[in-house]
Specification:
Blueprint: H1 3-22, H2 25-31, E1 32-39, E2 46-47, H3 49-62, E3 64-77, E4 80-92, E5 98-111, E6 117-131
Parallel strand pairs: 1-6
Antiparallel strand pairs: 1-2, 3-4, 4-5, 5-6
Helix pairs in contact: 1-2, 2-3
C-alpha cells in the first residue's frame, strides 16, 4: 500500500471516530459516499446519503457516544480499500444509563474524483449489546 494512501485512510478513520464522539451528524453524513450502503445488524439496509442521515438522526439526538476502533487492517486496490477491525461504543442517553455496543466491522472506502476517501459500504457483526454497570471495565 502506498504510504500516502495509508496515511489518508488513517486520517479518515480518526476523523470518523472524532465525528461520532462529537455527535456531529452533518460531519458524519459528509464522511459517507453519496451512494453509501450501510448494513446495520438486524435492520434493513440503509441506501444513500439522505437515507443514512434520516436513519442516524434519532440516534445522535438521543445519545452521546464514546466510539473506539481497534486493530484496523486495511487492504488497498486502486481507488478501493477494505478495512476490518473491532469497535466498541458506549451510548449514553438522557437517563444517564450507558449501553455498550461492540463487535467487528467491515468497511469499503472509495476514493472519489476529488481525491478524498469516503465510507461506501459498512457492515458490523455486533458481539455485545448490553447495559453497562459501574463495575464494567473497558
Amino acid at each position: 500500500m502506498d504510504p500516502s494512501d495509508q496515511h489518508q485512510l488513517a486520517a479518515r478513520r480518526t476523523e470518523w471516530v472524532s465525528i461520532v464522539n462529537a455527535g456531529d451528524l452533518p460531519g458524519y453524513v459528509q464522511l459517507v459516499g453519496e451512494n453509501v450502503l450501510w448494513l446495520p445488524p438486524a435492520q434493513p439496509p440503509i441506501e444513500g446519503r439522505k437515507a443514512f442521515e434520516a436513519w442516524l438522526r434519532p440516534f445522535f439526538e438521543r445519545f452521546d457516544y464514546e466510539f473506539v476502533i481497534e486493530d484496523p487492517d486495511v487492504r488497498l486496490s486502486g481507488d478501493w480499500a477494505v478495512e476490518t477491525g473491532a469497535f466498541d461504543t458506549v451510548m449514553t442517553g438522557e437517563d444517564g444509563m450507558p449501553t455498550r455496543h461492540g463487535g467487528e466491522y467491515l468497511v469499503f472506502w472509495h476514493r472519489e474524483s476529488d481525491g478524498i476517501w469516503y465510507l461506501e459500504r459498512y457492515l458490523d457483526q455486533t458481539l455485545s449489546d448490553r447495559h453497562q454497570t459501574s463495575s464494567d471495565n473497558r
